[in-house]
Design goal:
This protein is α+β, with helices and mostly antiparallel strands. The protein has a single domain, classed as Lipoprotein like domain (Double Stranded RNA Binding Domain, 2-Layer Sandwich), CATH 3.30.160.150. The chain contains 4 helices and 4 strands; from the N terminus they run H-H-E-H-E-E-E-H. The protein has a 4-stranded mixed beta sheet. The radius of gyration is 21 Å and the shape is flat.
């Protein structure tokens, strides 16, 4: 009976339609496509953080001579804002919210076609304490964490787009 249940479960799992995105390792179409994405400079400190995180997640294409071989370009515009949430009776702020939003487009460099036009964003709450140094450090750490989160979301959408693109090609 137990073996029968295992057999039924394995058949149900194969019928669910799940496919590994990186089947084939570095030679997989998605992995090669991700490695061929160029990320131009993004303005500001948050842009620098997002660009570095994106490059780490996407990988770097290399033709052996140390020069990248981009097939796609990921254009990113960031909106980084800090807003006061908790205001006390003496007009001091007790809580802030840092919001990082990205509008991005994946462009096929050979055709100029926009393959993906999307947004990604994240936010974090920050306690404002009596030490200005501690508050500034918390704001900077929140920006670092938000940049990683936004870059993860963007890299996932780019990978899904490239997988769909690879499945359409003969």
């Amino acid at each position: 009976m137990r073996n029968l249940l295992l057999l039924v479960a394995s058949l149900a799992l194969t019928a669910c339609g799940l496919q590994p995105m990186y089947a084939g390792g570095r030679k997989a179409a998605v992995a090669e496509g991700l490695a061929a994405v160029e990320v131009p400079a993004i303005q500001g400190r948050g842009g620098w953080l997002v660009k570095n995180a994106l490059e780490a997640r996407l990988g770097v294409a290399d033709n052996g001579a140390g020069q990248s071989v981009p097939r796609y370009r990921l254009d990113v515009r960031l909106d980084d804002s800090l807003e006061a949430l908790g205001v006390l009776n003496d007009d001091t702020i007790s809580r802030e919210r840092r919001i990082l939003r990205a509008r991005y487009q994946l462009v096929d460099l050979s055709t100029g076609a926009i393959l993906l036009d999307a947004t990604a964003g994240s936010d974090a709450g920050i306690d404002v304490v009596s030490s200005e140094y501690a508050t500034i450090a918390a704001e900077q750490k929140a920006l670092e964490n938000l940049a990683l989160d936004v870059a993860d979301r963007m890299a996932t959408q780019v990978a899904l787009t490239l997988r769909a693109q690879a499945s359409r090609q003969p």
